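Run folding on both entries below.
>entry_1
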Amino acid sequence: MKKPIYTLDFQLIVFRIRTNFQLVMKNYEVLKLEFKKMRDSLVIEQVWHKGLPHKLDEQIFEISRHLLNFLSVAEAVVDANRILINRNFTNHLFINRYKKERDIRLTYNPIVQFIEGLRNYSLYYEPLVGNIKPITSFPNDRIYHLQDIIDSKYLLKRNKLLRWDDWGKKGLPYLKKLGDDIEIEIIIDEYINLIKNFYQWLFDNLKDEAQ
């Protein structure tokens, strides 16, 4: 088998790819902490039970800020690692396997295209700011009293997102299938699982290349 043509030391290439991947995971962990904080009983008491509107505004701002950070880093890392691998595996069979797996797992995946479109929406159309919806134990989350609120969800409005016209061939159909209120945390969790599975494949195959 033809040996790869490296322009960097092999271990350095893997280190850079892994570091980029860890940037995504770190931003994901920070964002998840904000989602978790939104559901914390003390925060729910301050925001809803005591009816402090500035606390609600703070929560929306922090989640929106970390969401944009996550989206920006996630897409930047996909591009950075793609360029890194393309430059350092020239004329080697691995590049063909990599491109095939990347296209199947990421490039043409509707969730990945949606996340990319969400990043573009935030950067090129308007700031991405959601709303926090109170959740109660009653049907349809009807609120009889502020003390009835037991949980919160961060939601994006589908009709606002549809104003952006660059969601990709699979990102747009995916968006149209979502409900009017989009619980973005669930989609991001699904996206992270796709990313983790892809990088597990990548690191396993890079390990084989080193042998």
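>entry_2
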Amino acid sequence: MTHTRRTILGALPAVAAASQTARAAASSWKPKIGVLARYTENNIEFTREAGFKSLELVCSAKSRMDATTVTDQDLEKIKKLVKDAGYVCKNCGRSAKDEENLCNPTKL
């Protein structure tokens, strides 16, 4: 198969259109599955505003939700911030608005 200047130049508009379509499709992809984040009020607010379906808060050592240092007052504040979630998983601690998004849901 021989490529001439004419065939190459003739194909350029089609290639440009195809790449522009692919670029537009890639930039419009916005997953709304869930977020894994450290506990901060800003992270909770971002998750809510962005429309994500679930939020899992990290409860590791030396984090703001460290099980050895978190107080009942801290937990009450966190509950108020995530109250729109509606449900929390008894197994993994993930919260969600709908119980079908959790493996072992309990109402908040």
